[in-house]
Specification:
By secondary structure, the chain is α+β, with helices and mostly antiparallel strands. The protein has one domain: Cytidine Deaminase, domain 2 (3-Layer(aba) Sandwich). The protein is 28% helix and 23% strand. The chain is built from 4 helices and 6 strands; from the N terminus they run βαββαβαββα. It has a 6-stranded mixed beta sheet with strand order 1-6-5-4-2-3. Strand 5 and strand 6 form a beta hairpin. It is globular, with a radius of gyration of 16 Å. 33% of the residues are buried.
Amino acid sequence: MKKIQHIIEIEDYQSFDELNPQDRKLLDKAQVACKSAYAPYSQFRVGAAVLLANGEIVSGNNQENAAYPSGLCAERVAMYYASANYPNVPMLSIAVAVESEAVKFNKPLAPCGSCRQVMAEYEHLFQMKMRVILSEPGGRVQIINGISDLLPFTFNAKELKGL
C-alpha cells in the first residue's frame, strides 16, 4: 500500500481590486447576474459568467423552482448557454459570485458537485483547463487553475468507453 497525496494550488486575493482587468470584468459580470437570480425559496443568489476563447462573456444565475430538483445552478445555466450558442468555442474561465441576506460568508464558495462535473465535461471536450474564479461578497477572491483541483477524480467519456 502507498498513500497518494493530492495537493491543489489556489491563488488567494484579499480583494477584487487585486485581480487583473480581465478577471475583474468577468467577476463583475457574475456579480451583476447574481442580482437577478430567481431564488425565492432559499434567498441564496448565485451568478456565474463564462469567458469564451472568442472573447465573448456569457452569464447565468440560479433558477429555483418549488419542485426543488427542477431548479438549476448559475454555473450550469451559464455553461449550457455558452455551449448552446457557441458550440465549438472553448470556455477559458468561469467566475462565480454569491449573495444572501440570511447567510454570512467568510470565504469564497465553490460550485456544487454537479457543476464541477459539467466543468470537467467541457474541459475534456476542449482539452484545456477552465480557470475557476470564486468570490466572497465584498471580499476575498480565489482562483483555481482547472477543475481537477476542485474535482480530482473526474469522470468523463474515457470511463464510459472503458479506456
